[in-house]
# Entry
Amino acid sequence: MLTALNASEIKIAVAANVSYAIDDLVKEFNKTYPDTEVKVTLGSSGKLTAQIFHGAPYELFMSANMKYPNKLYENKMAITRPVVYAQGSLAMLSSKNIDFSKGINFLKDRKIKRIAVANPKTAPYGKAAFEAFENAKILKDIKKKFVYGESISQTVSYTLTATDIGIIAKSSLYSPKMAKFKENVNWMEIDSKLYTPINQGIVMLKNSKEAKAFYNFILLSKEAKQIFEKYGYSIL
# Structure
């Protein structure tokens, strides 16, 4: 049985792709812990990891893949082994109506001048996108079209304002402001066989009762699992 904590706060670092779900997660957590203020810092997993190595005072880290929490754990910066909290997937999105019948090969079309994609060096969804391009054998044909976002949320912004199409986290499509975009008209999920599953990992960085409570909520509560599924994630 979860019990209420005294008035307190917790600082958590959260991968940008979770920005669409995190408000609902915090609201649900605060139903049980109304006196705990959850302070969220969003960014690419790589940049957040660099901040943690440089002493940023986060108590918990929700990464977009397992690489960065593993790195923190190996360097004794995390006090718990990385655990998968959700599995993400890639989608193509355009503000225009698109004929997606060619699948990912559509990106080679001459009408597509610019493609938004997250920086693969700092954003796990960018790395997965590059893997999909390589496995589909289209990377060489489309590389000159790329406009890079530093995080997946910046990539979504570029997709809608500065490019013809973008490779985004499927979870991005489940925020209310994205409801106007229709599957197979404005967006299509990328074949998951083209890239390694995006296992998203969580670690505790400090042993506080607040961090432990939020950690347990994310991993153990059916409410958190339902929220992740609502935002297009798979739960293993």
